[in-house]
Design a protein that fits this description.
The chain is mainly α and about 400 residues long. Helices cover about 75% and strands about 0% of the residues.
Length: about 400
């Protein structure tokens, strides 16, 4: 699923470190992270579309399919902690490269999988690699635009959303009949391209000139508003992940073809991208918490509408939940970086992604086989808690980098 939070692609936020010089080498170095994120987003977008085919081929129950889906999220949640810790301690580009290589390896395993066990192994390896490199992408990108970190963040998110939107349409329309394995081979190829660009970039071999202090990790525990924002992420991303898990299954149960499922998923990501672009000038201003407050309302409305299982209403649900993702993703990441203790940018973005993934894991594991009478109230309660967290966060003037 774009942890576009990630994606929901969960996306990280700006770094508090020294910016890259705005030369050609620095710009070339950014192309590697962008390519890696495209692979990350395509995985997030295509896997929900591939779930019915995986379930059919390996004769998986719904609960077994949920574990195949969640294996990636568990590995991501662990990997982001490693990526965040090492990213604040060692050379960022080197740690990033190791993560991309692990993601590439897992994608290859998935592409050649012949049983459910290989599926899980590939998902774990792929997820761990994604977890290592994903919190470092915003750290690398926003060093090139320290004056407007929120703007570059949301423009990046919009680009990711457009990739996410068209990937299901292209796959279902062109490659859908070729088998689900081919999708992972395509993801592996893009990850490989990221490594090549990163290694060939003239700035990659240059040492990072930074004055590093020993991180004071205990300061994280005292950051009240940071944890309120992380709780917001946990509950909103949990609800969105559950929607992305169940949506293709609802459609397939009504006899919808892969093309129709891809269209509805693309509607979700196009809504996310379009609204993100409209909000790009607001996330560096005082409107950020107001925008965040709208997200739980949109997500709850979209999920409740989706239980009708009518294709037209499911398109409307996708629009509502996609809008909720746009209102929650970059704004909450911006607040996380605003309230992050000094010198702990990468750790804070890692916690952002970890809590988002754990929220998704919990929602899918608990609600996968429940009906509307259980899932509906649980989702509404989660959205209510997210809204209360937003209200409780102290308003603070945007920081200039």
């Amino acid at each position: 699923m774009p942890d576009p939070r990630h994606s929901p692609v969960r996306i990280g936020g700006p770094s508090q470190g020294a910016p890259f010089a705005p030369g050609l080498g620095a710009r070339a170095t950014i192309l590697g992270p962008v390519a890696a994120h495209i692979a990350f987003v395509i995985e997030l977008t295509l896997v929900p579309l591939l779930l019915p085919a995986m379930r059919s081929q390996f004769e998986l129950s719904l609960s077994e399919l949920a574990w195949v889906f969640n294996a990636y999220s568990v590995a991501v949640a662990l990997g982001v902690l490693v990526g965040g810790l090492f990213g604040d301690t060692f050379k960022t580009t080197k740690v990033f490269g190791y993560g991309v290589f692990a993601f590439l390896s897992g994608s290859v395993v998935l592409a050649v999988s012949t049983n459910a066990e290989m599926l899980i192994i590939g998902r774990i390896l792929q997820g761990f690699g994604a977890g290592v490199f994903s919190p470092l992408i915003p750290v690398l990108l926003t060093r090139s635009a320290p004056d407007k970190p929120g703007r570059v963040l949301i423009l990046w998110g919009s680009l990711a959303g457009y990739v996410a939107a068209f990937a299901p349409l292209i796959y279902s329309g062109v490659l859908g009949s070729e088998g689900w394995n081919l999708a992972f081979g395509f993801i592996a190829a893009i990850a490989g391209l990221s490594l090549l660009v990163l290694n060939w970039s003239p700035a990659t071999g240059k040492p990072e000139v930074m004055q590093r202090e020993k991180p004071k990790y205990l300061a994280i525990l005292q950051a009240r508003d940071l944890w309120l924002t992380l709780a917001y992420v946990f509950f909103t991303y949990g609800a969105i992940t559950y929607f992305l898990f169940r949506l293709p299954l609802w459609l397939s149960e009504t006899g919808a073809e892969t093309t129709s499922i891809g269209f509805v998923l693309s509607t979700f990501w196009l809504t996310f991208s379009g609204l993100s672009a409209l909000l790009r000038n607001k996330v560096d201003q005082h409107h950020v918490q107001t925008i965040m407050l709208a997200a739980p309302l949109l997500i709850a409305a979209g999920l409740l509408t989706s239980y009708n299982a009518n294709t037209v209403l499911l398109v409307g649900s996708a629009i509502l939940v996609g809008a909720g993702l746009a209102c929650s993703n970059a704004p909450s990441t911006q607040l996380i970086l605003r309230h992050a203790p000094k010198g702990l940018s990468a750790v804070s973005t890692s916690l952002d992604i970890t809590l988002a993934r754990f929220g998704g894991i919990a929602a899918v594991a608990i609600l996968a086989e429940t009906g509307v009478s259980v899932a509906g109230p649980v989702i509404c309660a989660s959205c209510l808690v997210a809204a209360l967290c937003t209200i409780a966060i102290r308003k603070q003037a945007p920081q200039s980098a």
